[in-house]
């Protein structure tokens, strides 16, 4: 969640005390562990085509890229591929590594 959405959500919760289903975007979070020891969390929001990855202590938005099958996201030197055969990540100058959801 970017900083502006977090602030708006916090203000809405404190002002109303409750949240309505229409006032919050649906979201999905998934944690991964990779063969090379890398760990990260990816968040997907209903109204946003990007994936938001938390890796190495920072949050990085990854733009959705064109692919023939599965999903591919990239940005800031990171490429995340999610397909039927599994998930891989290429992080900066490290080689591509296989990852599993945790």
UniProtKB/TrEMBL annotation:
Domain C-type lysozyme inhibitor: 32-75
Keywords: Lipoprotein, Membrane, Palmitate, Signal
Signal peptide: 1-21
UniProt xrefs under InterPro entries: MliC, MliC_sf
Top-rank taxon, per record: Bacteria
Coiled-coil regions, chain positions: none
Pfam family, one: MliC
Annotated Gene3D superfamilies: 2.40.128.200
Protein name: C-type lysozyme inhibitor domain-containing protein
Organism: Bradyrhizobium iriomotense
